[in-house]
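Dear U.,

For the methods section draft, I wanted the exact inputs and outputs in one place so we can describe them consistently. I've listed the two proteins in the order they'll appear in the manuscript figures. Please don't edit the C-alpha cell lines directly; just add comments below if something needs changing.

First protein:
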Amino acid sequence: MDTLSYKTLSLPKEAVVRDWWVVDATGMSLGRLCSQVALVLRGKHKPSFTPHVNCGDAVIIINAEKVRLTGNKWDDKTYQYYTGYPGGQRELTLRELRDRNPARVLELAIRRMLPKNKLANDVFRNLHVYAGPEHPHAAQNPQVLALKPR
C-alpha cells in the first residue's frame, strides 16, 4: 500500500494560488448565496485547504441591491450596534440598512459566517461587494462562479 497518498497536505502561505471569481447576486437568496461565497473565500472548495492559512480565493459580488429574501425579513430582521456613548444603542432594520448601503447587507452576512479569529480579517479582505453591475477588477480576469440558485 502506498502510504504517501495518506499524508496530510499543509500548505505554506507562500504557495497559495488565488483565483478571482465574480458572482451576480440578482435574484439569489441572501443566506444561500453568502454561505457558498464564504466557502470559496475560506478555501474549503480546494483540495489543498489548510485551516490555519488564508488559502481562499478572491470573490467579487455585483448587483448586491438585487438580492432577495423571503417572508417579512426586510422589516423583521434587525441589526444592533453601539456608538460608545451612554444611551447610544442603535437599531436598523434590514430594509434601512439596504437603503443606506446595499453592499453592507452581504458583507455583514458573509463576515458572520467566517471563523471568529484573526484569520477571518485576512479572509474578509478578499471580498469585494458592489451594489451595481460595475466593478473595477477587470484586470484580474475574474471567472464567473456558478452557484446553485436554489
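Second protein (the one for the lower panel):
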Amino acid sequence: QRARMLPEAHKRQVFPGGGIIHPTLIVEGAAAGTWQWQRAKAGLSVTVSPFAPLTPAVQRGVADAVEAMGQFLETGPLAWREA
C-alpha cells in the first residue's frame, strides 16, 4: 500500500504535480524526506528536508551517502544540512 511508503500528508512534497518527482530520502523502505543538491566550485552541497527529525543513525547514513555521491561526481569538499 502506497500510504505505508509515503504518508498522504507528505505526498505533495514528493509529487508536486506536472510529472515532477523530487529526490526522496528513503529510510527502511519509506519516504522520510526530500533532498536537493547543488554542485559548486567549493564542492557538493546537499540539503535534506526531512518529514520528521532525523535520528543520529539516519544522519550518519545521509553523511555516508553524500560522501559516496561526492566521490562518484569527483567533487571537492562535501557538505550537507537539514532544511
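Candidate sentences for the figure legend, describing the second protein: The CA atoms of residues 42 and 55 lie 28 Å apart. The chain has a mean pLDDT of 89.

Thanks,
Y.
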